[in-house]
Each structure stands twice: as C-alpha cells, then as structure tokens.
Specification:
This protein has 198 residues and is of the alpha+beta class. The chain has a domain of 132 residues: NADH Oxidase (3-Layer(aba) Sandwich), CATH 3.40.109. The chain is built from 7 helices and 4 strands; from the N terminus they run ααβααβαβαβα. A 4-stranded antiparallel β-sheet has the order 1-2-4-3, with helices on both faces. Helix 2 packs antiparallel against helix 5. It is globular, with a radius of gyration of 18 Å. The structure holds flavin mononucleotide.
C-alpha cells in the first residue's frame, strides 16, 4: 500500500517513493524463505568504507524459531511491542565500532544504515513492508543475543506483509493513514555552501 507524500519535488522510482514504515503487519503471513534471502542479499551489496562490511543482522523469524523472535520482541519498548508483535520477522541491526584490522571505524554506523535501507528497499520490491525502530533496550538485546562489545545494536527492524490499518489502535491508525511529510529539499541540500552561512 503506497502512501501520499506531502511535497514531492521531483519524480523518483516507485520502489523508493513507496517505501514507508507501516505498523499494521499481517501476523498470519510468514515471509517466504527466498524473499528473506533476497533481502539479505540486497543488504550484502551495500557500499562500505574500505569494503569492511561492518553490519550484522540478527534475524528472528517467528516460524523458524519462535523463542528467539519472542526474545527480541521483549527487548522492544512497550509501545513498539504493541504493533511489532504482528511482524513475522524481527531483526536487530548491529554496527561494528572497529575495522577488521582493529582500528576504530567511525563510518560503521553510516555503512550499516546503508545496508539496512538496501534491505528495506528490496523488501518493498518483493511486496513486503519494513519498519525500523530505535525504541529498544540496548543492554537487554546485547545480553539476550550475546552481542560482542565491539558491535553496537543500532535498530530493530520489523519485516512482513502489510495488513489493514484497522487492526491498529486509534493513535497508530491515524499515523498509519496520514500523509507522509518531509522538510523542503532546500533545507537539507545546499549548493556550494552551508545554507545561511553567508
Ligand atoms: C533509526 C530509526 C529509528 C526509528 N525508531 C522508531 C521507533 O522506535 N518506533 C517507531 O514506531 N518508528 C520508528 N522509526 C520509524 C520512523 O519514525 C519513520 O521512518 C519516519 O517517521 C519516516 O517515515 P517513513 O519511514 O514512513 O517514511 C525509526 C526509524 C529509524 C530509521
């Protein structure tokens, strides 16, 4: 289900324009194995500083392993849990703080975000929906999944098929059906100099 955007300023490819973050997931529609693998493949081919590939994805599929799926769900904030409980796949996206040669990697989080959005875009092309979440307990997730110190849990990611917004409570339903909004292009893209610096 695509969604109206408030101020498109150019025509772009539908697979980019139509990606958004719904909360209504179909609990009874698992994600097919081949589609899941295609999503991982898209993330694999993201660019990264020195080609270090600093991303790691912990994948919890309710069909394959309900216990780990529940463990990750339990790490989410209560408000996120309310809707993410319907997503058949939950992931934890982690970023390396060090390059493989042991030196600090200050681009690890940047690169990991690129891998995550590649996954989200591929999911959209396959008819799936994604919703990333910063609302989770980092200490709990580190402990539950034995995440090493040199990796930072960055975001949880819900993946699945979209459902009717009617399954949501009133507050979420309103957001689900509202127009998507972005700041004007001029506020984020500066030709030649930082805007307002002259
Ligand atoms: C790193 C990150 C953290 C986010 N955290 C949450 C969250 O905890 N809960 C939530 O419902 N949405 C969360 N979102 C979704 C954003 O609110 C959403 O992407 C943003 O409003 C833009 O909407 P769109 O993705 O539909 O274009 C997060 C998104 C990102 C990328």
């Amino acid at each position: 289900m695509s969604k109206k955007r408030n101020n498109p300023q150019a025509t772009i490819e539908p697979f980019i324009a139509d990606r958004w973050s719904p909360r209504a997931f179909a609990a009874d529609r698992p994600v097919e194995g081949d589609k899941l693998i295609a999503c991982f493949e898209a993330a694999r081919w993201a660019p990264s500083c020195f080609g270090d590939e600093p991303w790691r994805f912990i994948v919890c599929d309710r069909v394959r392993d309900p216990a780990t799926w529940q463990q990750l769900l339990d790490c989410l904030t209560p408000r996120n849990r309310e809707w993410a409980c319907n997503a058949p796949v939950l992931m934890m996206v982690c970023a390396a703080t060090l390059f493989r040669n042991g030196k600090p990697n200050r681009w690890g989080q940047y690169d990991t975000g690129q891998a995550a959005v590649s996954l989200c875009l591929q999911a959209g092309v396959l008819g799936l929906a994604t919703h990333q979440m910063g609302g989770f307990d980092g200490d709990a997730v580190r402990k539950a999944f034995s995440i090493p110190d040199e990796f930072t849990p960055m975001a949880a990611l819900a993946l699945g098929y979209q459902a009717d917004p009617d399954i949501l409570d009133e507050g979420f339903r309103e957001t689900e059906t509202a127009e998507r909004r972005r700041q004007p292009m001029e506020e984020a893209f500066f030709f030649g100099r930082w805007a307002g610096s002259d």
